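Example 336.
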Amino acid sequence: MFHKKSLKLAGLYLTIIMFISLFFSAAIYQLSTSELDHGLRHPDAGPAGVAPEYGLSRSTREALREERNAQYEESTDHVLNRLIVTNLMILVAAGFLSYYLAERTLRPIEEANEALERFTSDASHELRTPIAAMQSEIEVALMDPKLSSKDAKNILKSNLEELAKLTALSVGLLKLAHRENGQMLQESVSVKSVINSSVSRVEPLAKKKKIDFNTSAIPQTAIRGDEVALTEAVFVILDNAVKYSPDKKAVNIDVSHKKKRVTISVTDQGPGIKPDELTHIFERFYRADSARSKSTVEGYGIGLALAKHIVESHDGTIAVSSKPGKGSTFTLRLPA
Ligand code: ADP
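Predicted structure in complex with adenosine-5'-diphosphate:
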């Protein structure tokens, strides 16, 4: 399909190039023949207004004219042949160039299309799972003539849990769509306030799991960007560190400012991430299986995709290093 579209666009490019080339070739041919006509068949009068043939015998004049006509024909043929060869060369070169340009033009559009298709199908799959669970529970309950009020309450409770999952998922999707399509503010943001706001957002869960934060001295540095978005990105990393860590395992937050770059590192002592999963965790909807975290910790694999998008929109980078069974370190680097 992509190949077919590229060929179509290349055909269009080629038509335009050949149209221009043929147009100029026709103009060159026209100009050359009229110059040759002027120079060979109708030469200017010589010095003192005397035609070059003046004083020659009639037969010599005829012979001269015939020779000039032959020269004219030969020269115009020569020009025509040259133009044909040049156009054929342009056709071949432009053919390759057009295909190359068409591929280059269409590749990002194709990739964006594929990403959108993948996103739509992943999102609908994620939405369908809790809906299907609710539907089957309700259907089974309705078919049971001896359904007690205790069973009904249990089913409602389970439905409520599925609804909470749906709400969390739709909030995550909305955030992602909002961040990906919306404009980021460009204001001076204090790193300290970003760290403090994200820590206070994750604190309730950390308290529940008795997880402490060891935070290094935060330099008084400012970043240019969107405070809400940057807080969201740091929150995602801290939330994961707490979410995936076992109880009572401290999380370290290290902030430094060197060479016009602010580095924020978050290290946990959680299950870690396997090397083959590391490359995927920033993809939307990807959830690693490490230490069975997928089945025990709730989530939809949206957080890190969101954090990566926010950090990259601020000309920053996000990286991870991890040792399975020992913990992970997520590092955000942002221009100060
Ligand atoms: P979610 O946490 O909602 O599943 P994320 O996009 O935030 O989605 O993370 C993607 C996956 O990366 C998670 O499912 C988890 O498997 C893995 N992951 C992220 N952070 C950590 C961490 N600190 N420790 C272990 N695994 C992590």
